[in-house]
Amino acid sequence: MQTLDFGPLKSICPECKKKSMDDFYPFCSMKCRSIDLSRWLSDGYIIMGREEEESEENIKDIS
Fold first, then answer.
1. Domain boundaries along the sequence of the chain
2. Which residues of this UniProt protein bind Zn(2+) (predicted)?
């Protein structure tokens, strides 16, 4: 029986599209890692949440 060896998976840096490095995974360098962190901290990325209707029950819970 023959087995297939595809080798290690190669990951691409989400910032600059270069090959990622183990020390900075999933990024290729500290620079790209820092750029991404800066975006998170300055609201450059937004994760949409679910909107809840403002009902009387929700307003009473807050008070």
1. 10-36
2. 13, 16, 28, 32
Q: Over the range 4-34, which residues count as b (16 or more CB within 10 Å of their CB) and which as e?
A: eeeeeeeeebebeeeebbeeeeebbbeebbe
Q: Is the per-residue pLDDT at 13 higher than 70? A: yes
Mean per-residue pLDDT for 31-56? 85
Give pTM, 2 decimals: 0.59
Q: Quote the tokens at residue 5.
A: 């060896």
CA neighbor of 25 nearest in space, from 12, 38, 16: 12
Residues that constitute the known binding site for Zn(2+): 13, 16, 28, 32
The answer to whether 34 and 41 are in contact (CB under 8 A) is no
Q: What percent of the chain has pLDDT over 70?
A: 67
Kindly state the tokens that stand for 8.
């290690």
